[in-house]
Amino acid sequence: MNCYKSLAYLKSPCRILTGRNLSTSTALRDQHSCRLLVVGGGAGGCSIAAKYASKLGKNKVIIIDPADRHYYQAMFTMIGGGMKKLNQSYKEMEDVLPKDALWLKDTVTEIDPKKSQVTTQKGDTVAYDYMVVATGIELDFEKIPGLLEGLKDHRSGVCSNYSPLYVTKTYGCIQRLDSGNAIFTYPNSPVKCAGAPQKIAYITADYMQRNGRKNVKVLYNTALPVIFKAPKYATSLWKVAEKKKVKVNLNVDLIEVRPDKKEAVFKSLSKPDETFVQEYQMLHVCPPHRPTPVIARNKELSDSTGFLAIDKGTLQHVKYPNIFGIGDCTTLPTSKTGAAVAGQLGVLRKNLSAAMAGKTLTSTYDGYTSCPLVTGYGSCIMAEFDYDSNPLETFPFDQGVERRTMFLMKKDVMPQLYFNLMLRGLWEGPGIFRKIMHLGLSK
Ligand code: UQ1
Questions:
Q1: pLDDT of 119-175, one tens digit each?
Q2: Which architecture characterizes domain 7-136+292-356 according to CATH?
Q3: Ligand 1: distance of its center to the CA of 339 in Å?
Q4: Where do you find CATH 3.50.50.60 in the chain?
């Protein structure tokens, strides 16, 4: 089926279309149709659109995303630590999306899976044969009273690597810090890059040690009952925290920030009704996250948690066989990282193609995810694991220890790999290298 667009010339005269035009009675509203619709132009959406735009041909893929910029979010920790600049972390959306796909710079406001059609904010409709949902996850800074006020005030010491709006503030906070508490928080919700809240704590501790600032106390306050999900790397991280004198407090949840007094209020999750206040000079917050509303409020598509209900092996929607999902918007029970998206891409490619050809889906996602746990200026533990939190390491050495090579991999190799290969549909995670490095003997 061709993509078509009716009355397109009335609204966007510069967009050249090759498909056929259909007349419609609803003037000034476009009706599109396509073989594959991709909702979201982030890591998953852009990469899968790239694969299919070249496979299916010009304008057979439509991609919908309202953003001007595409960020490589995995770089935000490095920006917070002063090791990268914000302008290295993004490209213009029009430069990363595949040229053969039609980009609608718009937001999907409603999905009707029974009609295989979506509606956008501008009032356009897009009918699809197949759809990949890649809408990501949202940040909920508003949920914590006082947090936005603190983030917006340049002298407050409150920062967050999680948003391009605030990530550039972090390094200034680290540089100015010379005494008192530096508190790093992890919220009581699913988050993207579950390692990021503690990476910046270790980087800050390293900065203090290198600059002889002995009067700073670094605290990592997490709502989780563990330091890290995968036990192998949890063991390593407890050692890192001890070595770097980072005090780890488990089961504590940030519930309020008082920027005027430089106080943070926490709730204990292990002792009901207990709250406590800690003073800070620096407060780095990982905000609570929430599923994207367009999925969460759609009861046909989401489960009770608000995420897109897909099969954890095939990535196909549990009710609608022409819908697939990738990345942070899904119910996949693995850590939400760019590396996980890379691992899902190959499975999605194979299963979506099988579905399009009316064949049985044979590829299974094992939950592969990776978290390059940067532990300072020059060291990194390259965690890689599956659904069962068992290590799935690429390299033929123990990745549970801090290494300079892995730091350089994270800092210099990954961004290249991401922009030049993954977003062009040419990287499906390191699985193939893992097999070669382990000579086919293991995993
Ligand atoms: C990866 O595949 C990936 O995608 C480009 C990343 O960027 C988000 C990563 O940070 C990592 C670690 C991987 C996994 C790759 C290797 C070689 C361990």
A1: 999 999 999 999 999 999 999 999 999 999 999 999 999 999 999 999 999 999 999
A2: 3-Layer(bba) Sandwich (3.50)
A3: 5
A4: 7-136+292-356, 141-287
Pocket of ligand 1 (CB under 6 A): 74, 338-339, 342, 370, 372, 382, 384, 394, 414, 417-418, 422, 427, 429-430
- In the predicted model, is pLDDT for residue 100 greater than 50? yes
* Nearest protein Cα to ligand 1, atom 1: 339
Instruction: Give the pTM.
Output: 0.93
Q: Is the pLDDT of residue 9 over 70?
A: no
Catalytic entry in 193, 286, 329, 380? 193
Q: How confident is the model at residue 27 (pLDDT cuts 50, 70, 90)?
A: low
Q: Let me know if 14 is a catalytic residue.
A: no
Domain 141-287, CATH class in plain words = alpha beta
Cα angle for residues 267, 268, 272 (degrees, 5° grid)? 105
Q: Whose CA is nearest to atom 9 of ligand 1?
A: 339
Q: Whose CA is closest to 150, among 23, 282, 33?
A: 282
Q: Whose CA is nearest to atom 3 of ligand 1?
A: 339
Which amino acid is present at 432? I
Instruction: Look up residue 162 and give its amino acid.
Output: Y
- Is the dihedral angle over the CA atoms 172, 380, 335, 131 positive or is it negative? positive
Question: Mind listing the pLDDT tens digit for each residue in 358-373?
Answer: 999 999 999 999 999 9
Report the alpha-carbon distance of residue 61 to residue 438 in Å, rounded: 38
Judge whether 193 counts as a catalytic residue: yes
